[in-house]
Amino acid sequence: MNEEQKKAVTTTEGPLLIIAGAGTGKTTVITRRIAYIIEKKLAKPSEILALTFTDKAAGEMEERVDILVPYGFIDTWISTFHAFGDRILRENAFDIGLSPDFTILSRPQQVLFFQQNLFRFHLEYFRPLSNPTKFISAMLSLFSRLKDENVNPVEFLRFTKQLSAKRGKKESKIQAQKYRELAQAFETYERLKDEAGFLDFGDQVIKTLNLFNTREEILKKCQQKFKYILVDEFQDTNYSQNELVKILARKHKNICVVGDDDQSIYKFRGAAISNILEFKKTYSKAKQVVLTLNYRANQSLLDSAYCLIRHNDPNRLEVKNRIDKKLRSIRGQGLPPQEIFADTISEEADLVAEEIKKLISKKTHYSSLPPKARPAKGGRTQNYSYRDIAILVRANSQAEPFLRALNMRGIPHKFVGASGLYQQEEVSILISFLIAISNFEDSLNLYNLVTSEIYNMPLQDAILLASYAKRKTRSLYFILKNLSTFEQNDFDISEEGKAIVSQVMADLEESIKLSRRENVGKVTYNFLKRTGYLKRLEQEGQVEGTIKIQNIAKFFDKIKEFSEIAKIETASQFVDYLDAIRNAGEDPATVAFDPDLDAVNVMTIHGAKGLEFGIVFLVNLISDRFPARQKSEIIEVPKNLIKETLPSGDWHMQEERRLFYVGQTRAKDLLYFSWSYDIGGKRVKKISPFVLEALDKPKSDATFIKLSALEKIEKFAPVSLVSRQTVLFDVDVLKLTQGSIDDYLTCAYKYRYVHILRVPILRHHAVVYGAALHSAVATLLRSKKSGKLLSSAKLMEIFENVWDSEGFLTIEHEEKRIAQGRIALLNFYKRESKSNIMPSLIEAKFKFSLNGVIVTGRFDRVDVKPGSKVTIIDYKSSEEIDQNRANAQAKESLQLAIYALYYYKRHQIIPEKLTLHFLESGIEGFYNPSKKDLEKTEAIILETAASINSDIKKNKFLANPKYFGRVPACVYCAYKSICPFSLAKVQ
To answer: Where do the UvrD-like helicase ATP-binding domain residues begin and end (predicted)?
Structure first.
């Protein structure tokens, strides 16, 4: 570490502001600070709270801390703000009248919930009868922003009354009436959510804050617990999140925030830059460390970025705190940003693609550069891979010309979008399928389906059929269904086309029949299985197929979200739901950024935050595109309710400039600015003012470049979002669970399906049944521990609320399973209510490290009796009525063995008893582990981890199914229908 970093790590007492410029080793400082606090015994791991904004960032931070902390285990609370709030609320649910099994609504679920209850809201203006759902999304956005500002319905209603009491123009009165209508809707929305046991993402923060403000004993407990608090990306916090941090840090005052005001780019989602700008005002005794030594970029690129961002003065920490934030590179001077200037947007894209081709085809010889432009190591050769290059756009919609240009030249590439899942070919096919079986009159989606890569109907045949349907004013479905009744002279399609029609209609009719009794998830999965589409994608072994599988898995996540809240789970209801959320602007992200895939990265600057690339192209840099035009919310938060200190000056221009700065500082070696006169509109466009600010000159002197006639023709090549190449995987830190180890030991090829490709499957009914029982049991045990034991009736209600209808053979099968579960729970309730043993841990997550391998798990229950006699209990929903067999299962359970190993490593105590508690029979199988058993378990984990790492690096997983007697595991495998090596078919 450099001196600045050491100071940031070792300054442990009192408030601390770490201003970490781009590429200065921010994550290194945070993780080493946590390790330092633990190493110096200033606090236990469980007394440190580290908050960040994304699951990915929290995961990376955890990984680094796990490696740094020598104990092999880590109990630090590292999480997102929302995950932290969720944990606090669930742990204290009974104290505040919440059910601990509450459901968090995603944005699409909020839209559906609002729509289902639309006429329970007292709305007039915001529920026009001609289009009743018109303002749903806008109202939800308003409610979310109000929660960002820690405004509840009571405060909003009070504001509207004050507004109504003021004398003013007629327009003001109308505005007051609108706000009153919205305030009442906000109150109704919150009440309906509470009644249904739902929370949204904003609630996870605001309800936690409210809990701390109203339950002093809980606040004191948390304040006492968290001796050290760290917040990453502090410039991205909103008002409510900052209030949450302030109230927690009130006792020990050891609050450390890390951020960079110049990288605050999330105003549109509520981020309050004033939090970091005013940190020293909030904490008058706060110390300050500024990290300026940059490990990423060359000095020329840093100087250019600094030229740009100084145009935001005086609304920057550098001015307000009178510090020097100019970044200093350790990598030498290097080259300044290069310019690419073209006539049209398509020519601009082609020139960018050509430049990439040149960069990859030849080595960059730094020895040929002027001495001041060379890296610190002097003359050397730099080889670039496709993965080292990024094309960054201001918005998703601007990527298409560049994707087409890359595709035309055969340059491997992938588009990582913050939205666009529903537009991906593989997902669009499934949507068309669901619409086709729900609405026989929708010819367009049926046409998309028959011409898709699933059926590949010859285009000539598809056009003939669609044209004939149009002439006869019939739906395409009608024509396909009755194809054999038409005269041959009406249209002449190929024999291949006729065979495809027969297959399409057979698949659709089977799916329609299934949709009458099964939910949308099962219908969709059955279609994939019947057509062999998943199997085909998996067996291609190409990047394109792998990403398609992962996007399909994300689509199944959306189906699951729908199923969790929908009253009717049919395909047609899901189609209506999809239509509603898409109209509300919902468009989920595609698969996440994968640094191991050797392809040019095309993404938005927002999506590139936190990443770095050898070469960066900032493209489409024209006025009106960058800076983008300011967009107002459909329903604005009243200024009187905004509690953050709003920045002075043109805050939108300042935010856009910061976004440009973030784009610039992603580059390590080379940075290109590109733009063009003509992007398809009526007027010639001007260069972005940010380019001129970054280059520190009044106008660009870039040379205008034109393409040849042939190049202009070739630009019309079709676009592919992902290029074809063999898929390779790698992992920095291997993470294992009992389940993943068991999957690998059962069959390495199954491990590949589950944990590498993540191929979606329907949950087996036994899994659904077990999950519902476990949730109900955990809730009962928590209530017992809190001293407020649930009634048996409430336990049954919780069981039914968490029940999912997925995977059951028939409705009768499901009903019998529910009845069976009720009996099992009632019997468990009777046993537990009579028992005086109080659980010490319930559904407690754990994690520890073995030779760099991270092992995670979750205890169902741990009992600690006097004399440190520990019993670890795992609840089982499977049937077992024989005591000897139950004991044998406990002895053979890898899950219990891993639990015991962790407990020993964490507490230096070998558990006295490992227990499998079979809920249906009440039988408990048990085993008394020895230290030798624990050593054997550790060896199994390490051997398995070594084999998995080897298979990942070779990209070769053997199909080696375990045998149960004479029966191979293939017989029970969920992937047997797509696995080319399955032995299930020959049994």
So the answer is: 1-298
Q: Could you tell me if 586 and 578 are in contact, meaning their C-beta atoms sit under 8 angstroms apart?
A: no
Give the pLDDT confidence of 658-671 residue by residue, as tens digits: 999 999 999 999 99
Residue 309 lies in a domain: no
Choice between 691 and 634, residue whose per-residue pLDDT is larger: 691
Sign of CA dihedral 151, 153, 156, 162: negative
Whether a cis peptide bond, with omega within 30° of 0, leads into 371 is no
547 and 495 within one domain: yes
Rounded Cα distance, 89 and 79, in Å: 14
Please report the DSSP string for 627-647 in residue order: TBPP---SSPPPGGG--S-PP
Return all residues near 53 (Cβ < 8 A) that are at least 6 apart.
80, 81, 232, 233, 236
CA pseudo-torsion sign 163, 164, 167, 171: positive
**8 Å CB contact between 682 and 347:** no
Binding-site entries for ATP: 20-27
Residue 372 burial (10 A CB sphere; 0-12, 13-18, 19+): exposed
Binding residues: 20-27
Among 36, 186, 76, 79, residue whose Cα is nearest residue 848: 76
Both tokens of 459, joined, read 């285009």
Q: For 625, which DSSP code?
A: B
State residue 902's pLDDT score. 92
Q: 267 and 208 in one domain?
A: yes
Number of Cβ atoms within 10 Å of the Cβ of 956: 10
Domain containing 681: what range? Answer: 338-419+598-630+651-714
Q: If you ran DSSP here, which 8-state letter would residue 335 be given?
A: P
Domain limit, last residue, from 291, 315, 346: 291
Q: What is the pLDDT of residues 412-463, one digit of tens each?
A: 888 887 667 888 889 999 999 999 999 998 888 898 899 999 999 998 888 8
CATH number at residue 25: 3.40.50.300
Interval 290-308 mean pLDDT: 96
Are residues 415 and 426 part of one domain?
Answer: no
Q: In sequence order, which residues have a C-beta less than 8 Å from that of residue 748 and are 6 or more positions away?
A: 947, 951, 957, 958, 959, 960
